[in-house]
Amino acid sequence: MKFSYKTEELKNIVVIHFAGSILDKSEAADLLTLIDEYLEKGTNKFVVNLSQIDYINSSGLGILINILTMSRNKYGELVVCEIPEKVTKLIVTSKLQNIFQITENQSLAIEKLKK
C-alpha cells in the first residue's frame, strides 16, 4: 500500500496518522512542507501515530527524525505512538528508542505533550 497520511489539529498539537509503506523520503515531501507551515504558525508539538503502517525502512525513520529535528529547532517535541511490532524492531535495532519519545497509544502521547 502506498504511503499516505492525514492530520488532525488538537489545540496546539498536531496528530499525524501514517498509513501504508514508507520506502522513499520523496513520498513525504508534502508532509515535511506541511510540518514547516505548522511550525511557522507556532504549532511545534506533533504526535505521529504509526498504527496503520505496513512497512517502514531507513527512509521512513529519516522522515521521523526530520520531524523531530524540525520541531525541536522550534522548541517543540514529537511523540511517536501505536508502533506496530515489526516497526518497533527496526527502531530498537537502529537504537532510536533512546531518541524518540514513544507511547503505547495516542491519548498518552497527547498527554505527554500537554505537560
Summary keywords:
about 120 residues; alpha/beta; five-stranded mixed β-sheet; 4 helices
Secondary-structure map with pairings?
Elements: E1 4-10, E2 13-22, H1 29-41, E3 45-56, H2 58-73, E4 77-81, H3 85-93, E5 101-103, H4 106-114
Helix pairs in contact: 1-2
Query: What is the residue-mean pLDDT, rounded to a whole number?
Result: 95
Form type: globular
For the largest beta sheet, what order do the strands appear in spatially?
1-2-3-4-5
Span of the ends, CA to CA: 36 Å
Order of helices and strands: EEHEHEHEH
- Please count the beta strands (DSSP E, at least 2 residues each): 5
Short structural description:
This protein is of the alpha/beta class and 115 residues long.
Explain what this protein looks like in three dimensions.
The protein is of the alpha/beta class. It contains 4 helices and 5 strands; from the N terminus they run E-E-H-E-H-E-H-E-H. It has a 5-stranded mixed sheet, sandwiched between helices. Helix 1 runs parallel beside helix 2. The longest helix is centred in the middle third of the chain and has 16 residues, at 58-73. The radius of gyration is 13 Å and the shape is globular. The protein starts with a strand and ends with a helix.
